[in-house]
Amino acid sequence: MKIEKIKPIPKYIIARIERADKQNNITVPGHTRFYSYLTKNDGELVKVTVAVKEKKNKWYCKQVAVHGVHSEKCFVKDMNFTYIAGYTVGWHSEGLTNQRCWYEYGEWGWTTDDMFDPYAPIVNREYVLEKFPEYKYSAMDRYTGIDVLKYLRLFEQFPQIEYLTKLGLHNLAMSKQILKKCGQDKRFCKWLAQNRSTLNKSSLYIPVVLQAYKKNRNVLEVQTYYSAKLKMSKDTALEPLRIAFKKDLEKFFHYLSKQRTNAYSYLDYWKACNELGLDMTEEKNRYPHDFKHWHDIRADEYNSLKAKKDAEKRKALYEKFAAVASKYLGLEYNKKSVYVAIIAQKPSDLIHEGEILHHCVGRMGYDQKFAREETLIFFIRTKEQPDTPLVTVEYSPTQKKVLQCYGDHDSKPTEEILDFVHKKWLPYANRQIKQIAAA
Questions:
Q1: Contact indicator for 328, 397 with CB cutoff of 8 Å
Q2: Which of 136, 272, 370, 411 is 20 to 30 A from 254, comparing alpha carbons?
Q3: Residue 265 lies in a domain
Q4: Is residue 317 assigned to a domain?
Q5: Which of 152, 187, 203 delimits the end of a domain?
Q6: CB 48, CB 66: distance < 8 Å
Q7: pLDDT tier, 148 (very low <50, low <70, confident <90, very high otherwise)
Q8: Residues 79 and 47 in one domain
Q9: What number is the average pLDDT over the span 96-116?
Q10: Do the domain assignments include residue 320?
């Protein structure tokens, strides 16, 4: 095909495009859509893509791309593509915009054939068989897809595409793997015909079709396994199961299907069994005969064990927390001031303080940091109301300084309280720290 032989859109084609545009009921003012038609260019079958737009009740259309059945490059005009915006068309020459787009030259340029080929319904499919007798036996009239040029290229290389198209196997007909197999194995062609009612019902993975034929398996069962395997390979949460069942993955998915459960429920069961110390190489544990029953039992056993461990950890934390509070009890301050500094005695004191003053001292791991002596928590209160939370102080015994000092809703304390904290309590606390270190 040649640029100089690109002809204007025939009037009857314009009428067809406009009629198709109205039938599609997608006439949105300002929105660009695409249609295409087939014609000849220097004797070659080409597909011309047409952009359509409506503004102020006036309908516009223009040629934007030309692709040839045997050409390695295509011609493009006034069209751009980005991964974010997709295809955009400049309409300055039609008077629809005040400024010309940077890509809008009004002349044809060229690029590789695989570029600038948006989805565009063809309005004159019959043109192929009317003007190109070499495609008479291509079953082009039965092809329901949109990529006519790709279909015809495949027909020239693999005539067996006609057989698959007539069987209604349109998705499989566009696969080179399937077409090559058909050309090499007549039994495969017969198998496709025998199973066409199943093969044309859903979109199947090509490896699934080939494997089902090779192993004489039900194609839908293989598809289910293949889909599950693909999903598992992309989900990092299921990695433990992918590793554990690497050698018998198909058996595992068959088991899940039979038990009417899924990989995520089994993952919960798997984790519970491992925490309970069960041997998961044993068949009875790996594939329990009644999954739901044993899932619930193992979950209950695990929750009981976890609660026991949590209680033991909590008890150990309280004991360690109390020991640290006792060690630094001497840092409490109750001298000549209206304020007092009281050290927290247990983790629940932090929770209570945080709830009353609406800050995070009861969360964010302060109890763990306290138990490790990384930080100490003191409550600043008045002598008249020593049980009423007022200000919370985080103190570092190693740095000997106040890390945080906040009141209700993380508010800054009054100057009077800050003077007490920094000028009275802090110097006193640091002297006490030195004595504890020396002792």
A1: yes
A2: 272
A3: yes
A4: no
A5: 203
A6: yes
A7: very high
A8: yes
A9: 92
A10: no
Give the Cα separation of 368 and 316 in Å (integer): 11
Percent of the chain past pLDDT 90, that is, above it, reads 85
User: Is 224 inside a domain boundary?
Assistant: no
- Domain region containing 400: 328-438
Query: Which amino acid is residue 138, in one-letter code?
Result: S
Determine the pLDDT at residue 23.
86
Q: The whole model's pTM is what? A: 0.63
Number of separate helices (H) and strands (E) present in the chain: 19, 11
Sign of the Cα torsion 73, 74, 75, 76 reads negative
Exposure b/e, 263-291, CB count within 10 A at least 16 = b: beebbebbebbeeeebeeeeeebbbbeeb
The residue out of 151, 185, 203 marking a domain boundary is: 203
The answer for residues whose C-beta is within 8 angstroms of residue 220's C-beta and 6 or more apart is: 198, 202
Evaluate whether 391 touches 402 at the Cβ level (below 8 Å).
no
Q: Residue 25's pLDDT is what?
A: 66
Instruction: Report the C-alpha gap between 304 and 423 in whole angstroms.
Output: 51
Residue 374 is which amino acid?
A: E
Check whether residue 28 and residue 105 sit in a common domain. yes
Whether 31 and 56 have beta carbons less than 8 Å apart is answered as no
Contacts 24+ apart (CB under 8 A), 74-77: 74/110, 74/111, 74/112, 74/113, 74/115, 74/116, 74/117, 75/1, 75/3, 75/6, 75/108, 75/109, 75/110, 76/108, 76/109, 76/110, 76/111, 76/115, 76/116, 77/105, 77/106, 77/107, 77/108, 77/109
Number of domains in the chain: 4
Tokens of 202: 């859903």
